């Protein structure tokens, strides 16, 4: 089934060989049932469908833009019909040409943060999904702790030199949550100042880690992801693995309190081993304007090969939501309350990590 | 309360002239005086209707006499911070900052003045990767704009705040407009999108929030006719990405490495093709979106055009001949679909 999840962006170089792609990819456009498109699918993925249904219901403006997107597509109706016959390369191709045309003519919509849902669901998520399923073989549990249709702040531990943990959490919430939530992450400012990376982060729904943006997203009912350890967490040496770093100033707690949303602690095990960082070339990091320049057993001396993450087996556990609304929005100004909740979240994540580590027998096979 | 005598600055430009005309259409308004240092072009002066044109430079003390002798009670300062026509930088700064100072001094002196409406720009929020994605009226940028009309706008707003402190009896409405785009407006941005190959900064895609000039005029008119003091962001709903907008205009984006931008911008300015300052290039890096909730709730105005509609109106109204023709793309798509249907 793995090939069924790859959706090429450019239909030009698709010779029809990846025929199954449509079953997943078309999800952005119509609200069909999940299983009819991919009858052999081992896992249920209700996510994308609910998303598109919600979009359709979201308002007439969305509908208007869909019209805008489809007026040139003669194949739209064909695609609607042949849903019972399993994967069909005809409709896949028609669908891909429509997608290509929309990208070429700018007939898509982004939200005020620059989030491009269509591009994310049809291009980036399928790529990440293959890594999720086949490389890290992620097991996500406790997804019911993430609200179905309201805002929440997902707080997770950060590790692994490159933010693969954030990307995998996105896939877990999008594909395996009952209502398929899109994770909107808060990133460091260095991300948004970097060419390509910054634009990519915005297009896939990320925004700057600052309270106004976080609260705006949370009030809008989004799931916001935050990694409060920041660079201290993701760039820590291998010997410190699974030791949670300091949790900043607790800005994420006050954002959740002011928005009246719960905090969902999220513990990720497996990401620490993908790039064992045994050294740091500080002058080079300073030269390149990076927070650190990692040395792993394979990088930099193996070059590009060294950037391939080790295939550790991952577990992502979403814990019981921590209610912040009971303290009231004015408690967001009370440093005592803020630090208490911050510590509570941190301890929950640390304990969950220890429990998951105790259950894990080997790094690569779980 | 409907004003009796309104003075509008900057009537040789699109917004000023049209606003003067709109205000003159209202029979409850006694007189509308349009001031500028140069005559409005023929088609603009036709728009002004019964509004009177007074040729005066707002940097000249004459402006104080006009305001006091005509017993002007409402001043709409629509000439500041305009990026409609690229002019020499020094002259623009003088006009923006010193002109505003003079005008405010004249207003402060006249006992008749009860209301001041200032057209400012959302450029005061700057544009950087370290700022929140959406600005509301209370926010200040991490880096204050250090050059160009954005810096002027910050200074102008400072003087307007000072004026508000010295004359607390005057209602001050400060309107921060996003970039205007429409078929009849000529600005840096419209010229930029009219280039067949549109230079963009490599690796960046800005979020654009635009505003249709009709909406801008409606907001200014309402601010002049009603008492709505405060600072308001004025922008259309929705966001277009820069790359998306360029494609919607049928243009081809040409990404330029960041280090090459300044020399190329200089070349374009020299060749009189497009005038892009460093400030505007930063804007094209990151873009800027403002929160218009206050405009809706407190000012009571909802823009009729979305960003996308305003942009499409500009593209169709200008009759830009697309380099990439949507019809060609769509017929190609239909052709592919037909082939598929035949094959199965």
Automatic annotation (TrEMBL), chain A:
Keyword Acyltransferase: yes
Compositional bias per record (Low complexity), positions renumbered to this chain: 24-33
Keyword Transferase carried by entry: yes
Biased composition (Basic and acidic residues): 42-54
Record's GO cellular component terms: membrane
GO MF: acyltransferase activity
Domain Phospholipid/glycerol acyltransferase: 152-271
Protein's name in the database: 1-acyl-sn-glycerol-3-phosphate acyltransferase
Organism: Actinopolyspora alba
UniProtKB/TrEMBL annotation, chain B:
SUPFAM superfamilies per the UniProt record, alphabetical: NAD(P)-binding Rossmann-fold domains
Domain NAD-dependent epimerase/dehydratase stretches: 6-235
InterPro entries assigned to the protein according to its UniProt record, in alphabetical order: Epimerase_deHydtase, Lipid_A_modif_metabolic_enz, NAD(P)-bd_dom_sf
A Pfam family per the record: Epimerase
Source species, domain of life: Bacteria
Full protein name: UDP-glucose 4-epimerase
């Amino acid at each position: 089934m793995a090939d069924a999840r790859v959706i090429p962006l450019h239909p030009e170089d698709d010779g029809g060989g990846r025929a199954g792609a449509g079953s997943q990819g078309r999800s952005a456009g119509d609200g069909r049932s999940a299983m009819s498109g991919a009858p052999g699918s081992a896992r249920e993925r209700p996510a994308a469908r609910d998303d598109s249904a919600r979009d359709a219901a979201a308002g007439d403006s969305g509908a208007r833009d869909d019209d805008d997107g489809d007026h040139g597509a003669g194949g739209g109706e064909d695609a609607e019909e042949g849903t019972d016959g399993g994967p069909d390369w005809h409709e896949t191709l028609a669908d891909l040409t429509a997608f290509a045309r929309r990208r070429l003519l700018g007939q898509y919509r982004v939200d005020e943060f620059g989030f491009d849902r269509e591009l994310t669901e049809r291009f980036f998520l399928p790529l990440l999904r293959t890594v999720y399923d086949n490389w890290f073989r992620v097991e996500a549990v406790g997804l019911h702790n993430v609200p179905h249709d309201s805002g929440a702040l997902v707080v997770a531990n950060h590790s692994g030199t490159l933010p693969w943990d954030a990307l995998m959490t996105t896939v877990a919430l999008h594909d395996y949550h009952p209502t398929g939530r899109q994770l909107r992450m808060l990133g460091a400012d260095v991300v948004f100042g970097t060419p390509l990376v910054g634009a990519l982060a915005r297009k896939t729904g990320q925004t700057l880690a600052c309270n106004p943006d976080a609260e705006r997203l949370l009030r809008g009912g989004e799931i916001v992801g935050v990694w409060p350890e920041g660079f201290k967490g993701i760039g820590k040496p291998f010997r410190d693995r699974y030791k949670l770093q300091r949790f900043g100033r607790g800005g994420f707690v006050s954002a959740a309190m002011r928005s009246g949303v719960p905090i969902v602690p999220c513990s990720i095990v497996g990401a620490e081993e993908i790039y064992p960082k045994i050294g740091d070339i500080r002058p080079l990091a300073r030269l390149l304007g990076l927070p650190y320049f990692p040395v792993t057993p394979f990088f930099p001396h193996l070059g590009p090969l060294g950037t391939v993450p080790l295939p550790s087996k991952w577990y992502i556990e979403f814990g019981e939501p921590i209610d912040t609304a009971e303290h009231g929005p004015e408690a967001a100004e009370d440093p005592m309350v803020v630090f208490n909740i911050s510590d509570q979240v941190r301890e929950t994540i640390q304990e969950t990590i220890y429990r998951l580590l105790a259950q894990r027998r080997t790094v690569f096979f779980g | 309360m409907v004003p009796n005598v309104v003075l509008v600055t900057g009537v040789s430009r699109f917004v000023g002239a049209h606003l003067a005309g709109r205000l003159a259409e209202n029979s409850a308004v006694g007189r509308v005086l349009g001031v500028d240092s140069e005559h409005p072009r023929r088609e603009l002066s036709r728009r002004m209707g019964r509004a009177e044109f007074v040729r005066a430079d707002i940097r000249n003390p004459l402006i104080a006499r006009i305001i006091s002798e005509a017993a002007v009670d409402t001043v709409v300062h629509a000439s500041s911070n305009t990026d409609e026509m690229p002019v020499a930088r020094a002259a623009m700064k003088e006009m923006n900052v010193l002109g505003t100072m003079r005008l405010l001094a004249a207003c402060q002196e006249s006992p008749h003045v009860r209301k001041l409406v200032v057209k400012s720009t959302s450029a005061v929020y700057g544009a950087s990767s370290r700022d929140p994605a959406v600005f509301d009226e209370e926010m200040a940028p991490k880096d204050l704009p250090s050059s160009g009309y954005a810096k002027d706008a910050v200074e102008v707003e400072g003087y307007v705040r000072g004026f508000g402190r010295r004359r607390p009896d005057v209602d001050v409405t400060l309107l921060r407009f996003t970039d205007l785009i429409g078929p009849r407006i000529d600005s840096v941005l419209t010229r930029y999108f009219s280039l067949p190959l549109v230079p963009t900064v490599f690796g960046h895609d800005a979020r654009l929030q635009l505003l249709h000039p009709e909406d801008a005029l409606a907001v200014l008119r309402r601010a002049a006719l009603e008492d709505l003091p405060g600072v308001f962001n004025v922008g259309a709903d929705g966001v277009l990405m820069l790359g998306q907008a360029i494609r919607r205009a049928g243009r081809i984006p040409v990404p330029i490495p960041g280090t090459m931008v300044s020399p190329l911008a200089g070349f374009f300015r020299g060749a009189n093709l497009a005038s892009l300052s460093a400030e505007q290039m930063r804007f094209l890096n990151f873009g800027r979106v403002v929160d218009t909730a206050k405009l809706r709730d407190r000012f009571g105005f909802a823009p009729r055009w979305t960003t996308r509609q305003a942009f499409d109106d500009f593209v169709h109204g200008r009759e830009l001949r697309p380099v990439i023709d949507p019809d060609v793309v769509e017929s190609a798509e239909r052709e592919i679909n037909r082939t598929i249907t035949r094959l199965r």
